[in-house]
Amino acid sequence: MLRNSLITILLLSTGVRSFSQDKLTDNRIASATLKTSWGAKVTANNCWREYPRPTMQRSNWSNLNGYWTYSITDSEATTMGASQGQILVPFPIESQLSGVQRSLGPKEALWYKTQFDVNKLKSSERCLLNFGAVDWKAEVFVNGKPVGAHVGGYDNFFLDITDALKQEQRNVLEVKVTDPTDRGINPHGKQVLNPGNIFYTPSSGIWQTVWLENVPQDRIEGLKITPDIDKQQVTVAVRGINTSGNDNVELIIKKDGKEVTKVSGPMNVPLIAKMKNAALWSPETPILYDVVVKLKSKAGITDEVSSYFGMRKVSVGEDAAGHKRIFLNNKYLFNLGVLDQGFWPDGLMTPPSDEAIQFDLQAMKAMGFNTVRKHIKVEPERWYYYADKLGMLVWQDFVNPPNALPEGSKPEFEREVKATMDQLYNHPSVVTWVLFNERWGAYDQKRLTSWVKQYDPTRLVNGHSGELLYVNDRLRAPSTEPWIESDIADIHAYPYPRKIDNDFGKIQVLGEFGGVTVSTPGHQWNDLDTWGYTTQSPEAFIKVYRGMLDSLKSLEKMGLSAAIYTQPFDVETEENGVVTYDRAVIKMPFDTMSKINSLLVLGNLNGEKSTLLASLKNIDVHDNDNRYEEYLTQFRNGNHDSAFVRRLILMAMRKNDKQPINDLSAAYLKNLKSPDSYANLMFILNFTNSSDNPGFAFLTRDSAIAKDVVGAFRYKGMVRKFISAEIINPALKKGGQVDWEAIHQTVVQKYGEDGGEYVWGKAMTYSIDHKSWSKMGEYYKKYYKTALPHSEYHINNVSWMVFENVDDTSILRFALTAVKYNMENFSDGGADLDTYANIYYRLGEKEEALKWERKALEKSPHDEEIKAALRKMEQGLPTWPTPDSTKN
């Protein structure tokens, strides 16, 4: 165990004796203002009015979207308590469009409340309450009575609420939601509590449509539609409730409004309809057949739903050279796609409108792609409906389990995988299931891949996309048996495509490549923090992309059957999309990209280009950092517009031009309209590069406000940066004995006791580095006297160094207190128990030491060092380094 390394002490999340201390900010989240044109039009009266389940649609329904009241309580609370305001359903609480924009902690519950009327029910009718999706656990109450619960953040569900209803008066609906995001057993995808880089803001609570349906007692509850182009037939399994046993199901299949065929038979028995000379569904000809399903009894029609399907087949084929290929309708079709995350700046996981969904899919097809890899998210069903209508092939990722795979996460993942397959089965656009991505939470790959193939043999299974990940042509981690049981061999290569060294006789695909950043000022989620695998100018982007497609064309000749480009739209700090996050600016003209893509894919949009794309603007290729001097001159000539100055400050920071920063900062601060907003304070925090910058005085004028808005951790980070740069580092450069007491006194006078605590921590690590153990013990005690709840350093690792190297019993006694705090608040397996036991042993308290060391071994039964320490304690031998022990 690496307990003696300073590096090990400083790293809080790696190594045997490491743990992940929460550095969560408070419940405020980034007050993002970036908005789409659709989000700007959203109101309580127009938000998501469309019927949400197009594969099984009823005419008799009522929409419950709109303003509900909400409150936040402890997760264990059993009642909602007083309302804390209104929330716009179905937008997640963290989103702008919810009207709240607040994070939900893992130990909190989000309560919703609304009232509704029901149409008078007949004696043979039931009332169903439907939810498109709630992330993650939902408990539902009607008129104070519990009517059911559901677990799973991405699948729809319904509850029969008939028995809890009051027919002649308003009914009260309450929903309690808990969502651990990335701190529980739940599949959470790209949602994390501390977003950044390739991970995004969570979407907690109700995030898809809520609706009511009055249905017959005997009714249709589900359809499973399986086309077979080889047998020229379609099988429709109608699942439902048939209490009499005499009801009959009738299927009417239509094309363009005209009846094609009709079949009938009993409920819950698959019905087969012949489809001779059927028109086939494909990206070029996305032809859909409509289905009307009627449940009939002697008294007439008791229930009726409508659906649709496409006649298509997905299979593994082989070309003349013996390469395995993706076949659609028994013909090879190269799948050229984009990695689509499905996030929005105003609605997060919830698209702002139905029209916005159509825009995204039409934009991707206008770029010249025929495939979408839906990345680690399951969309509302209307997204797949438009993919079906437009003719986009969909590779559907399952939402990954937590990387650490805590107890209970595996069965939950498998339950949600099955729910995803059941929910999306009828969509012809979905052609491939993607089980795992880049080893995130991957386990039992052989078993699970086989299970998915067996459960749905009508689609391809990509058992592990990017199991082999190459960045700048270097493999991140090898795998001895990649893609086991999979139909597909899938590598990721960033930024440039590369050959698969061994496809193991499977279909070769490049599951991800690209990630090219082209910055677009004014359309960024966070102009302080953008990310991509490579950054290019707009002109260079076209050349680089053309080179990538030339490579793909060469790789296709060597067996490549598919490639997925990252990505169609910017997402939060990932600024590597073809279109900006607000869906406003194109970084490469669609006609240009489509022409390049025609090297591999023929055919773009079906019919004329949609008017939805008309609002897009091409990027200004001349507006970049090369205009820095020009803009600086404009500033000196009096242009002090706030947005202009902000951009100029960022240019100066990128060019490391420190001289004009103070003047620019002063001008920016002078014109602020909302000085204490999160966005402004974060920006000031970032451009404040010294204590004489005007931003520093601005932030410290009322440090309580700054700490509250940006978070105490970030605020302290700024202060500590200046303490190091302006006081500690100059003292260290002088050489000789470092007077930490004098440094401490200077810092406390200027920055207060928080700064003084930071000095003791630096003194402690400096002493470790110089092996000044008596001084290290002294500073250890001074630092941890106040720093235990928010230590920058790994408490247990530092305390182990005290145990090994410090003789002072008062310091050792204090170390017991520190390690005990660590055990109670940041469980470290058996490691902290081991440290605790060893300190007792060094203090001469053998019985207490043995008691705790045995507990350590119970916690970590395979830890050889704990076993060895226990044997030494039992034999009365030292467990700390001695002159003799260091020789071994």
From TrEMBL:
Belongs to the glycosyl hydrolase 2 family. Gene3D superfamilies: Galactose-binding domain-like, Glycosidases, Immunoglobulins, Tetratricopeptide repeat domain. Residues 355-550 form the Glycoside hydrolase family 2 catalytic domain. TPR repeats lie at residues 830-863. It comes from Chitinophaga dinghuensis. Coiled coil: none annotated. Residues 108-186 form the Beta-mannosidase-like galactose-binding domain. Keywords: Glycosidase, Hydrolase, TPR repeat. PANTHER family: BETA-GALACTOSIDASE (PTHR42732), BETA-MANNOSIDASE (PTHR42732:SF2). Pfam families: Glyco_hydro_2, Glyco_hydro_2_C, Glyco_hydro_2_N2. Residues 219-312 form the Glycoside hydrolase family 2 immunoglobulin-like beta-sandwich domain. GO terms for molecular function: hydrolase activity, hydrolyzing O-glycosyl compounds. It comes from the Bacteria. InterPro entries: Beta-gal/glucu_dom_sf (IPR036156), Beta-mannosidase-like_N2 (IPR054593), Galactose-bd-like_sf (IPR008979), GH (IPR017853), GH2_Domain-Containing (IPR051913), Glyco_hydro_2_cat (IPR006103), Ig-like_fold (IPR013783), Ig-like_GH2 (IPR006102). Signal peptide: none annotated. One of its GO terms (biological process) is carbohydrate metabolic process. This is Glycosyl hydrolase family 2. PROSITE patterns: TPR (PS50005).
